Amino acid sequence: MTRFTIASFNVKNLIGPDQEYYQFQTYTPEEYAWKEDWMAQQIFSMDADIIGFQEIFEEKALRDVVAEADRIGQESNDAVLPSKTKSYRKKAIFRKLGYDSYRDAGLAFAPNVNDNGLPGQRRPGLAILSRQGFVGTPEVIQQLDEPLEIPFRDLTGEDAGSYRLTRTSRPILKARVPVGNTVITVFNCHLKSKLGEFAKAPGADFAPEADLTHYDPVGRALGALRAATRRMAEAWVLRREIVAELEQGHPVMVLGDFNDGEHAVSSEIISGEQPFRNYAWMLRHDAKDRNDRYSKEENTAITNAVLSHRLTSAESLFVRKSLRDMIYTSAFGGVYESLDQIYMSRHFHPDNADRIGEMEYFSVFNDHLTDGSHAEAPYNKLASDHGQVMAHMQIKD
After folding, report:
1. What is the pLDDT of residues 91-108, one digit of tens each?
2. For the chain, first and last CA: distance in Å?
3. Could you give the domains of the chain?
4. Spatial distance between the Cα atoms of 67 and 72, rounded to a whole number of angstroms
5. Angle, to 10 degrees, between the axis of helix 29-46 and the axis of helix 59-80?
6. What is the per-residue DSSP string for 257-313?
């Protein structure tokens, strides 16, 4: 068995000091030093073999953070690893006692094509760090070769227009990672947030809905609808790439900030359908009478087709195993929920007799999270507003 860990880490706006990434938002040198140290400590604590990062503005800043994590890790190794120089001479009984350096790791960075580089108007990208390196060159998916046209029809059948997507709000990074004798396709994503999208008139400084002194609840609800539509369209773009990999027989793991919970429509688009309990109960798509249903053989074929293209969240597998439901990676307005996920294909599902591996454990790093709407827990802009999730995997050699 080969064991490895894979994690997702939304770092919350990593960029060097004295650079205005969003309007009027920068880090002083002191703030940046604090953030760099905090991130390095988190990476050291996770010690994951594969990490997908979101909200990365600069590759150099991330490399500096990883180097600092290695420095912290080396200090820890010098202090705790048993050796003849230590007075206690204890035998290591843990599976993994020391920290493994990222010195020879591969780092793939995907800049955001929407980032114009202008102060106050920056847009973040993402990255994948892999101790195993990569097979081939990681691929960035953002600008679509052909625009996605989503047609709509009224319930009465008339044409109701369409939604058009030419690029995703943030890149999707696809990398093939060698683990033992297997190559796993890893996707890292950061889907459109729930922040509303408001239409700004030509020549206007801001959209009317942005003026909270003239609060427009209906207009702001329409902005949330636009954001949700974009998020679901981006989820479909990711789903199309996932299916292409699965149909080539490649094991797949998807991680990132989904900006939605596991049971949201956008997340279910990414994971695929849950198979119906028995398709032999269901009327055929071309039924001619009430008893025209799918056969037992067709039920088996349909179920296998659905399962072979379905992903399962590491969180749900852990909850099923541990009988717990207290996982969260985001806290805002009194709502604690999981926006950050790790999904895996059926190659790793414990119920699949032909699995190549499975998850042993699931970790959540969320002790730093505070709910900024509560006066007793003020918002901390330097630590991330997301928890980190990590799956502990084993794979057959």
Report:
1. 545 556 789 999 999 999
2. 5
3. 2-83+91-272+309-395 (3.60.10.10)
4. 9
5. 60
6. E-SS-TTSHHHHHHH-PPPPS-GGGSBPTT-SSTT-B--HHHHHHHHHHHHHT-EEE
Tokens representing 302 are 């349909």
Query: What gap in Å lies between CA 256 and CA 13, rounded to an integer?
Result: 15
pLDDT in tens, 342-351: 999 999 999 9
Question: Does the structure show a pLDDT above 90 at 301?
Answer: yes
Predicted pLDDT of residue 382? 75
What is the C-alpha to C-alpha distance for residues 397 and 395, in angstroms, rounded to an integer? 6
**Residue 372, pLDDT score:** 54
**Cα distance between residue 157 and residue 259, in whole Å:** 33
Side chain identity, residue 67 = A
What does the DSSP 8-state code read for residue 374?
Answer: S
List, as one string, the DSSP characters of 112-171.
-TT----TTB---EEEEEETT--SS--EEEEEEEEEEEEEEE-TTS-EEEEEEEEEEEEE
Q: pTM (2 decimals)?
A: 0.88
pLDDT, tens only, 107-142: 999 999 999 999 999 999 999 999 999 999 999 999
